[in-house]
Amino acid sequence: MNAIARYVGILTALPVSAYILKSIIPSIGAQGRRGERKLAFIMSVISYVAGTVFCLVRKAPRAVSGLFLSYLASGTLLALVNTALKLKASGHACGFAGPLTYLARFVGPVPVLMCAALALPIGYWARIRAGRHSLRELVSGTIIGFAATQLVVLLYV
């Protein structure tokens, strides 16, 4: 667990910094929710690329670099699908499904399916209720996170 703790800051701190930066950068703040979303996506991509490079350069344990690669693959596929299909597949659903898929590699599918059975309906309900996504966008994000991460697991881990 020590190795993961060393790398997890990149994976979490940079994307979260978008919510601080939106208050500091007037042009982003003026765009409201749209600017916040765009900045969060940019900071996430930066963290996935930086984290993956950092892991590979520092020769992080394969399980840790695989996690970063799965985030990078998920984010890349999400961006491609959203751009090419003019879809708004959920980054939150993608970011939830990917790590769960990755975790299943290490703890088995049963605990992961139990977690998903509890968390997905709540997360879906909250995003739909808040008017952030449709069911189609949530399911699309979940499928993208699962597929990209499964590909990383098969090819890398």
Question: Topology of this protein?
Answer:
Blueprint: H1 2-24, H2 26-30, H3 33-57, H4 62-84, H5 91-107, H6 109-129, H7 135-155
Helix pairs in contact: 1-3, 3-4, 4-5, 4-7, 5-6, 5-7
Structure description:
The mean pLDDT is 87. It contains seven helices and no strands. The protein has a domain at 88-157. Helices cover 86% and strands 0% of the residues. It is mainly α.
Quick gist of this model?
The chain has 157 residues and is an all-alpha fold. The protein has helices spanning 2-24, 26-30, 33-57, 62-84, 91-107, 109-129, 135-155.
**Computed Rg:** 16 Å
* Secondary structure tally, helices: 7
Q: Return the average pLDDT rounded to an integer.
A: 87
Q: Largest sheet, described in full? A: none
The share of residues in helices is over 70%
Low-confidence stretches: none
What is the H/E order? HHHHHHH
Structural class comes to: mainly alpha
State which percent range the strand residues make up: under 5%
- Assembly form of the protein: single chain
Number of strands: 0
Observed structural traits:
157 residues; mainly alpha; 0% strand
